[in-house]
Specification:
Number of helices of chain B: 17
CATH class of the largest domain in chain B: Alpha Beta
Distance between the termini of chain B: 27 Å
Number of domains of chain A: 2
CATH architecture of the largest domain in chain B: 3-Layer(aba) Sandwich
Radius of gyration of chain B: 21 Å
Shape of chain A: flat
Structural class of chain A: mainly alpha
Strand order of the largest sheet of chain A: 1-2
CATH class of the largest domain in chain A: Mainly Alpha
CATH topology of the largest domain in chain A: MetI-like fold
Helix content of chain B: 40-55%
Distance between the termini of chain A: 15 Å
CATH superfamily of the largest domain in chain A: MetI-like
Order of helices and strands of chain A: HHEEHHHHHHHHHHHH
Oligomer: heterodimer
CATH architecture of the largest domain in chain A: Orthogonal Bundle
Helix content of chain A: 55-70%
Strand content of chain B: 5-15%
Shape of chain B: globular
Chain lengths: 316, 338
Amino acid sequence: MAVTKPAPPAATSRRRGPRLTRRDKLVLAVMIAVPTLLHVALIWVPTLLSVALSFARWDGIGGLDTIQWVGLENYRQVFTIYPPFWPAVQHNLIWLVFFLLIPTTFGLFLAHQLDKQLRATRIYQSAIYLPVVLALAIVGFIWQLVYSPEQGLINNLLGRTEQGNLIDWLGNPRINLWAMLIAASWRHVGCIMILYLAGLKSVDASLREAAAIDGANEWQAFRRVVFPALKPINVVVLVVTVIESLRAFEIVWVINAGRNGLELLSVLVYDNIVGEASRIGFGSTLAVILLTVSLAFIIPYLVVYFRGGLVGREVR
Amino acid sequence: MRWALLPQRGRDGGGGGGGDSGSKELTVGSNASDAVPKKAYEQVFANFQKASGITPKVNTVEHETYQEQINNYLQGRPDDVWMWFAGYRMQFFAQRGLAGDVSDVWQKVGGNFTQALKDASTGLDGKQYFIPFYYYPWAFLYRKSVFEENGYQPAKTWDELIALAKQMKGDGLTPVAFADKDGWPAMGTFDYLNMRLNGYDFHINLMGGKEAWTDPRVAKVFDTWRELLPYSQEGALGRTWQEAAQSLAQKKSGMYLLGMFVGQQVPEADRDDLALQKKAVDLIGSAAHISQFLDRDTRPDFASTVMIPSLQEFIRKPDDVAGLTTKIENQKKTIFTS
């Protein structure tokens, strides 16, 4: 958005705009209170309860009096004797870095190409965007068929379906995470492409003309003129990508319930809490760890945002 | 072996006193969501209605969902009668008062079941909490036609099995089909080997947390299993049991250690070739002891969060048994404390 004039000092800001009647104030209060109440009740309270339960042992059966408080014991177990934990953390971080580097740059590249008014650009856009419409569970299911060792598309195209030369895309823990990242990126690229396409359309055409007149080639024009103008979109893309990668769950769940190289913190939480395992306390500990990882990204973002550093305008 | 059984009355359950007060309706919670079993049960319920005059109202939930929601279901409003598995998990619920005592029913019908079945239906307090309904064994399955064509004999000892596997490999077959993408099929192999190498009592005690996984007898199971791995389908961790069963049906594999449900994956015309029904009855009838399945004979949190990843790790790296069993034992100690 364009830069607006900074507001005058606080004392005068209240006199800007129409006066609010009592009724207006009441309506405003209700409009803020209802969502806030819902938010607190459905998000904050359960989060705080999860944090509390992370210090307990409980199987969810029987009343609250069957909860045993064990202090940091769950954390100790998670960090020392729970084999899927460190791989899960590693995979979550790999997922994040991969998503930030590959599908975002590729989406940007596609957007830049499709912005050039090629023939049939709409067809390309629709085709690339189509996977975004699919739920991640469906994406996982589709790619599971593609990666199947004996009956899948890839192995059959490569002719490697016999014992001894088959590529175990889903069962080999060294490659299955990358296989899943490709599948997830297939979907994510479409999402990013559309965001950048919208952003590119809003870049002032005169900027590009000026760059062309100054003799910049395509790459230089892009790097020096177009990309900096995309800064607000970059922020959105960053947020969407971080959310999508920390949220990854269904796509690996559908494959093999998130084991054997596809461990993720979200899956470990689910494994321990939902279903018969019912290790509520232990699962809550894993959830708190995932929360902490997420906060590690959210807090710096909010700090920068509220300092106005992200979009070049005053927020207050 | 595992069986899904006709359940016991929920004591505090929703349908609540409905059944006892002589009402003409009975609610049934069912996890038989697949087409074939569902149809079979419908016949059972129809017969029940004719025989007793009570109408069963069946509430069918998708198989996996039913199991995952079981804790909430039982504490909320369970049906009068609900399907479940025998073994440890049944005893667990019975102990928490979530299942009704049906010892009186056993007085009347107990003569139809073997002692082994009765034991598996008994809670920790000696009372019975359910009625078995159907069951099937796990076994090494093969196609008769394949064996006849190649002149194979079913193996009776481990050494014979390995020799047979070598022979099959030489003939271009994969000796043993193998799949563990879903995590639980490999438990069948572990149970199978452990009971035969170390006996029923050791197996049940190990499942119950009373023996250590670092015991050399457990290491022996893994070492024996390792001998079979070179003859098992590779890439097991990326393959589902359905795909492995199809390799048996397509005559690409010689044998498969699985439950009778493998028949679902074999075309109807070929099912006789597996000769399942009669052999299964003989096998169970002559069994001295019947266990359930690893994830029913032990705590479910141990089975799903510890054993599944551990068995998969063994399949990936069969050589480090000592390290693996130590990890299992460490985790077991933290889970079996309550």
